[in-house]
Prior knowledge:
Resolv_N, alpha/beta, DNA invertase gene rlgA, Rossmann fold, 190 residues, 55% helix, Arc Repressor Mutant, subunit A, elongated, four-stranded parallel beta sheet, 4 strands, DNA invertase
Amino acid sequence: MIIGYARVSTTDQNPAIQIAALEAAGCERVFTDQKTGTKIEGRTALQEAIDFARDGDTITVTRIDRLARSIGDLQTIISQLKHKGIALRCTEQPVDTSTAAGKAFLDMLGVFAEFETNLRRERQLEGIAAAKVKGVYKGRKPSVDRAEVARRLAAGEGQSAIADTLGISRMTVHRIAKEIAEAAKVSAAA
């Protein structure tokens, strides 16, 4: 049996083009996820497709990046498929794990998919850094009122009580207390 798997990253994207291509490739059943491809967790349709497939079946995707965006995840998925005797095929790339050449090409595409993800992450960090220099990007608002923690510490309230009252971790209170103590040492030394 030929089984299709389609994935789009967000719920506002439409998988219709992928589904049509998979059906045109002879897929008798298509499973669809609307989740990021950067991790396997939470992609229930992918797991359903793997569970549904039987020895001798083929899971088909349009492109490898629809299946995984990292070599580690790709290898995990391929291992699951291989263990069950399931082949993997792509409609837009020469990948067919039932052949040696197809397996080699799959590994190369996986490397490039991960590389692309890493480049995107680097560009995003560069953009954030540039926005910070311009004063446009401030980051997310602090979730901890540091002044309130400092005030309570100065009043002699215990770290556990502060954490409970403010709904934050004791470790966060401890870090703030440590920062206050270090700042006091620096100003005393000056």
